[in-house]
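Ticket #482: bound-state structure for adenosine-5'-diphosphate.
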Amino acid sequence: MIRQPENKSRRILITNRGEIASRIAKACRELGHTAIGIWTDNEVHATHLQFCDEWVHLKGSTNAETYLNIDNLVKVIKENNVDAVHPGYGFLSENADFAKRMESEGIVFIGPNVECIKVMGDKATSKQLANQVGVPTVPGTDKAVESVEEAVEISAKIGYPVLLKAVAGGGGRGMRACANEEEVRANFEAVGRESLAAFNNGDLLVEKLIVNPRHIEVQILADKKGNVYHFFERECSIQRRHQKIIEEAPSPFIGDDEELRQNVCETAVKLAKAVNYDSAGTVEFIMGEDKSFYFLEMNTRIQVEHPITEEITGIDLIVCMIQSALGDDLGFPGQEFIKRSGHAIECRICAEDPITMLPAPGLVTGFETNFPQGIRFDHCLYKGLNVTPDFDPMVGKLVAKGIIRDVAVRKMKAALNGLFIEGLKTNKPLLKVIMDNQNFIDGKYSTDFIKVENPNDLVNTDLNHMRFYKMLAAVEARRMGM
Ligand code: ADP
Ligand code: ADP
Ligand code: MG
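RESOLUTION: The complex was predicted; output attached.
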């Protein structure tokens, strides 16, 4: 029998909010660690606090004053005898200065070593490393282009369409597709300027725009002892503005091509080994219609869509990530223990207009769920939650697991129908339309799905939703004897 050694209990500060803070707190508690949560002036009742053992208050309501304020976080860490910090995703999770500061303060950063964050945090240096070790990259440059003339020259060489891409970009921002030389000339300076303003770095790469591509990524987990494992692939091709909304595992495009699956996963492991990766991370690829695939970037943190991988492998990635950082034993002894079964789909529930797909901040006045078997909902919703423009619009992740893909889709439809969020505008009606789209049902889609199929045109004002609230109002009235 394989046994796991007992671990020492540590004090872990979660420097994040929302669903991921709850998720991390639960993992800390499962491992017997003390979960310390943060609350700020405009989130006194945050859901994650109920899963924490201790709470600290960060004065202020803007992110710059709270979750991004490194000096203040260090003060809190010292005052509370913190042993380790988990940054979640977004905020300081991929900030090499923060990781370095933790190192110098003698605090464990639950993430990879500083060098990994630096090399992989830059789309040029990570592409250079991939090229060095023979991992295929998108045709184009792996160094920032110096001038619009150079960009035009490279574009002519690789052929149009091309993509101008900020080396420091993220969250789908800092990218512009160009169909010809005029468009490169017209956009080059503007993309550079926008990137400088958004990411403090105006450097751009030029690469080939892969047509009708699939976004395929591989979940990696490595420990501090040199072991690197993969947890198979996820497909995240349903996107708006280059940002994911629906993800699934395994990839319907790879399907039962086990040789391709193995090749993609082993390529990701090769790159992770080359950078001495030592935590949970994701290697992203773009795959063409001919199934050739190219490295896009590595995200050196836990990703939003990690639950679908957990659902098909049965392994808790956050637990493993904490064990890895603390130098504790992972829950399994080797790659051969990581098996997959079934199919999982995640829908990101976002506070946004389902037709324009733009953020729609607002107040949650009611929240109920009624889910079938096989559903997991990681969320930060409660009656009274005020989603401000300062927060990420994603308020929850609905995950459906089925023995085969059709079952997962069926369960997701049922789950969407059983999710009631009152007051807040969300993309739920759009997600419902997508679940009914024949090409989605057949697994035939590329990253252009939303642009090509325009599912937002079919969104209606959700009469079911209204009917449910009329019913709730009637029940409430009866309860009050009205
Ligand atoms: P994934 O969803 O695959 O984990 P994303 O790139 O969508 O990865 O980013 C996850 C979170 O981090 C999102 O909340 C996104 O808005 C935020 N994020 C990622 N990169 C940046 C960046 N460079 N600047 C600001 N926010 C970012
Ligand atoms: P980010 O850091 O913003 O996540 P990525 O490089 O991971 O940036 O790209 C985000 C998305 O943009 C991809 O999932 C894909 O849809 C699109 N994309 C990026 N590079 C290319 C490319 N060369 N060809 C086609 N689409 C691309
Ligand atoms: Mg990406």
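RESOLUTION NOTES: The longest strand covers residues 228-240.
TICKET STATUS: resolved
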